[in-house]
Amino acid sequence: MERNLKTSKKKRGTYAYYNVDGKGMEIFPGENEVTEVHIKLLHEMDDETVDEKRRYYYMVVDHIEEYYQEKEGKCEEKYLGFKSKYLIDNEMNPEVLYMKNEEENEKREMLNQLRLAMKTLLPEQRNLFIKKYVENRSNTDIAREEGVSESAIRGRLKRIEERILKNFK
Q1: Handedness of CA 24, 27, 31, 34 (dihedral sign)
Q2: What is the pLDDT of residues 99-122, one digit of tens each?
């Protein structure tokens, strides 16, 4: 049976246990090789569970509803903006956190695909790609360095982009 409240400090000498049926029994130190350390550990585990549930309901369940009520203008004016830091700071909105995580995963996947596509380029093409997109150099500057026309550089870049896009999944 899940606990919703922590046991008070005064009553932590024993441990009250409830089975699935809701039948309770009390565990005392000294019985069946149970020590005070065992009882303390049981209370600490319960505390962690209760704290985790409180965090979840505080951050997710309660505040996502309030967040959207405030966003839609349905929240009472006396509560606007100061009921919770989770309502004020959009960065703590669970939906925003989830979307950020999804965006990071997509970005990572795209970078992996680009890395694989870059392996299909010839060394000269890879160097030109780096000069243009990593070093952020102009076509004119690259053309001057390589001793070719700017239109030749544009053509090479176009072929590089086509090759990368072809190999991009």
Answers
A1: positive
A2: 888 999 999 998 898 888 888 899
